[in-house]
Specification:
The protein is mostly helical. It is 71% helix and 0% strand.
Length: 101
């Protein structure tokens, strides 16, 4: 049963070797960002960025404390989203004709 599922995944037209490697590299970079953020949090290191200021202003305006889904210090969250968007852009650009024919 598991062989047929893996064969189906290999036969997906957009899941070519380029896409597979870009996803692997993206996950590696994101894991490195999350590990460094965890290390910084464990050692009480501050990496203040613009997100802290914006979250403070939003919390004050909404009169409620904001709670992010994943807490990353400073601009690590912006970096994680930027890395993810970069690799998604590469994958979509590579598969543009396959996706939008």
């Amino acid at each position: 049963m598991s062989e047929s599922k893996s064969e189906e995944l290999v036969n997906v037209p957009w899941f070519d070797p380029f896409t597979r490697w870009m996803l692997i590299i993206m996950l590696g970079v994101l894991i490195a960002i999350f590990i460094s953020a965890k290390y910084m949090d464990m050692h009480h290191m501050m990496a203040g960025g613009t997100d802290d200021v914006v979250n403070a202003l939003a919390s004050h305006a909404a009169r409620a404390k904001s709670h992010p889904f994943i807490e990353l210090p400073g601009d690590a969250q912006v970096g994680a989203f930027s890395v993810a968007n970069f690799f998604v852009g590469l994958i979509v650009g590579h598969n543009w004709k396959k996706l939008f024919g």
